[in-house]
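Intended use. Records like the one below are meant for learning the mapping from a protein sequence to its folded structure. Do not use them to infer anything beyond what is encoded.
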Amino acid sequence: MKWTSMLAIYVLFWAFSVFLVLPWGVRTTREAGGDYIAGQAESAPHEFRLGRLALRVTIVATALFALFVANYEFGWVTPKMLDLFDREAVYNRG
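Structure written out for the chain above:
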């Protein structure tokens, strides 16, 4: 696999991992015992730490990407294994 393809796939894993990691450890202002600011939603996080979020996302994305690359190299799960409807047999018949 080319390094540019690997970089693009890693970026996709990173972007997807944001949605996996975002809810971890989030506390609302009520849970933190703080005071609301006028216009603040009750579900808004009390503190948003971008650096901590980016670090967690990078760790998760790197682990998932490493599994993806290992599967690509060793062929643990192939598209043929995931073909539940045996499409190859259908295409060969016609």
